[in-house]
Amino acid sequence: MAERKINPVLKQALELGPTLVFFGVYMWIKDESFAFRGTEYSGFIVAALIMVPLLLASIAALWWLTGALSRMQIFVAVMVIFFGGLTAWFNDESFFKMKTTIVYGTFALILGAGLVRGVSLLQWVMGEALPMKPEGWMILTRRLALMFAALAIANEVIWRTQTTELWVKLETFAMPAVLFVFLMVQITMLNRFMIEPPDDKA
């Protein structure tokens, strides 16, 4: 079934909303602790647990409105639920923080596995949205695999060596911004590989 178009602002709000709510809730209660059934939980863990149902609700809304979900959305949702559950069960913030490493690392491995086979899995996912020659897709896939690997390593270094507050800020704003700028720069650099749509007037 073809994906239904929705207002792009609404789509962005649904996709980014849970992460922004997590950031806002964390900044609000970061210095607080909450007791539940004899166990004390930090503000970070509470914020992470609030994010899980919000993410599920946003994904359900996207599926209902568009009739489709990307494999990336489903994978990220599974990771958030799984590591959010581990975070609560063990009362340990590190599980939620390492989620980002595993997500970026998995993307790097998947793209890298395709490259070893001589194919661009990125083209398989984004080919319809971004018409480009196969050689362009191979270049973009190699570069993006390296970027995902670099982000995974950066996340490990940051959460293990810096404060939780700094990690939350970088996770919410800096890493997505770096990835977005990287993609925009790469698409511009690979413009020569773009396939022009056919001229209907010809």
UniProtKB/TrEMBL annotation:
- Which coarse location class applies to the principal site listed for this UniProt protein? membrane
* Entry's localization field: Cell inner membrane
Supply the alphabetized keyword list: Cell inner membrane, Cell membrane, Membrane, Transmembrane, Transmembrane helix
UniProt xrefs under InterPro entries: YciB
Is-annotated flag, keyword Cell membrane?
yes
The way this protein sits in the membrane is described as:
Multi-pass membrane protein
Give one Pfam family: IspA
User: Transmembrane ranges?
Assistant: 12-29, 41-65, 72-90, 102-124, 144-161, 173-195
Q: Name any GO cellular component annotation.
A: plasma membrane
Q: What does this protein do?
A: Plays a role in cell envelope biogenesis, maintenance of cell envelope integrity and membrane homeostasis.
Family listed = Belongs to the YciB family.
Entry protein name:
Inner membrane-spanning protein YciB
Native source species: Tabrizicola piscis
What are the leading ranks of the lineage? Bacteria, Pseudomonadati, Pseudomonadota, Alphaproteobacteria, Rhodobacterales
Q: Which gene encodes it?
A: yciB
